[in-house]
Amino acid sequence: MAVRWLMTGALVALWMASAAMTSAQQAPAPVMLTPSGEGLPDGPGKDVTVRSCGTCHEARRAASARLTRAGWAAVIDSMIGRGARIADGDVPVVLEYLSTHFLGEAAQPLNINTAPQIDIEAAVGLLRREAAAVVRYRERNGRFKTIDDLKKVPGIDFSKVERRRAFIVTL
């Protein structure tokens, strides 16, 4: 009886390993969203914004953010740097739409010692994995004493930090 259970366990383990290998080999291609302007206010540039932003993420994601015009310009530059395809002539249209309908106050400095990962991504312009590395490093090694201490974090592009240095503090 024990041999039978052992054989059954071995077969189940073999089947699970085979299924895992098959699914890893057949990883689906990234899903591109169908642009939708649902939830966005009407106005000049809405269609261009939806078309430009809505294939990578829901365009209404902007509704949760309130940034200055300079902040929106930085977001657009960051998205283009990450592969967003926005025609040169559409950039000012998208910027005008976002800064008209989702205008916020000047950005407050980000305390890198207390900020959650999502805020580090947004304010510093880091990729999700880079922001996670900052949080992980901070949890293991303690507070950052200077902005230059971020150079010690493995796996981040410090040039991104350097560009946003004026918006980061270590309190």
Automatic annotation (TrEMBL):
Gene Ontology molecular function, alphabetical: electron transfer activity; heme binding
Signal peptide: 1-29
Keywords from the named record: Signal
InterPro entries for this protein: Cyt_c-like_dom_sf, RuvA_2-like
Superkingdom per UniProt: Bacteria
Protein name: ComE operon protein 1
